[in-house]
UniProtKB/TrEMBL annotation:
<dbReference type="GO" id="GO:0071111">
    <property type="term" value="F:cyclic-guanylate-specific phosphodiesterase activity"/>
</dbReference>
<protein>
    <submittedName>
        <fullName>EAL domain-containing protein</fullName>
    </submittedName>
</protein>
<feature type="domain" description="EAL">
    <location>
        <begin position="4"/>
        <end position="256"/>
    </location>
</feature>
């Protein structure tokens, strides 16, 4: 209990002092001969915190403490601030917890103001919906996402093929992208069952006009294999590790 209240104070300190640092991992398009940069996934980092087991531990603890909205909002704001002036045509993938769709501050109006402040537009942004807990109110989720999409934002379902069933979200929310969880990609070239599953996602995605993103690509063989299955985009350590935005020379050159 003492430990818990210390952790709670550490979390409040992170929120008050805005101590989250965003890093960005490239997402590559496989639609031409040579892979080309499509965009970045923003990932939260906690410099120097010894209280949490990485960002996942932090987000889980915030959930238990009823601070999901506040933490998600901070991470979202930091993700946008951290890549101010992102070139037009690039996508910025931002993780959001499904639950925050009930948060009044997750509003298109507020998000737009923030984007404009940093020289970005709704067309840059893809919200990655992570279902750490399942979506309870699909009608509410559909309403808010529809509102966002009419303004140019896009939607991805994250971690497909792992843990919680993402099939209902795919059917109900009709996302622009499905991100295939890295557990499905690891060793796919040597595992017929994984290949079948990805093929099934590819068939479904083609019918629904959804693009696929394979996560966790670490080996050349995995990249070749998913490409042959028709997966349009890829992300993983083979293609690039998460890094501060300033370390992407091509982007900073664009911005002077
Ligand atoms: O980057 P890393 O593998 O350490 O991230 C661990 C988990 O934390 C991932 O599942 C990722 O989705 C989640 N995560 C990282 N950054 C954010 C964020 O800014 N918002 C939310 N909601 N989840 C995040
Ligand atoms: O849950 P989500 O998909 O948002 O998680 C993204 C996390 O996956 C990030 O924390 C990132 O560091 C991690 N990640 C990205 N690429 C790879 C990879 O190739 N291998 C492994 N093991 N993790 C990866
Ligand atoms: Mn993600
Ligand atoms: Na994922």
């Amino acid at each position: 209990a003492a430990e818990r209240s210390l952790k709670r104070r550490a979390l409040e300190h992170i929120l008050d002092e805005r101590l989250i640092m965003p890093v960005y991992q490239p997402i590559m398009s496989l639609q031409r001969d040579k892979a080309s940069l499509f965009g970045y996934e923003a990932l939260s980092r906690l410099p120097g915190s010894r209280w949490f087991d990485g960002p996942l531990g932090l987000f889980q603890f915030a959930d238990e403490e009823g601070l999901t909205y506040a933490l998600d909002r901070l991470a979202r704001e930091k993700a946008i601030e951290g890549c101010a002036g992102l070139a037009s045509g690039r996508k910025l993938f931002i993780n959001i917890t499904a639950k925050i769709m009930n948060d009044a501050s997750f509003s298109p109006g507020q998000t737009l103001l923030l984007l404009q402040q940093y020289g970005l537009s709704p067309h840059h942004v893809v919200f990655e919906i992570t279902e750490r807990t399942s979506i309870e109110d699909f009608d509410a989720a559909k309403r808010i996402l529809h509102h966002y999409r009419t303004q140019g934002y896009q939607i991805a379902i994250d971690d497909a093929g792992a843990g919680y069933s993402s099939l209902q979200s795919i059917v109900e929310l009709k996302p622009d992208y499905i991100k295939l969880d890295r557990s499905l990609i690891r060793g796919i070239h040597q595992d017929g069952m994984k290949a079948h599953l990805v093929q099934t996602f590819a068939d479904l995605a083609a019918k629904m006009d959804i693009k696929l993103i394979a996560e966790g690509i670490e080996e050349d063989e995995e990249l070749l294999y998913i490409r042959a299955l028709g997966v349009q985009y890829a992300q993983g350590f083979l293609l690039g590790r998460p890094a501060p935005f300033a370390l992407y020379p091509s982007e900073t050159a664009v911005n002077g």
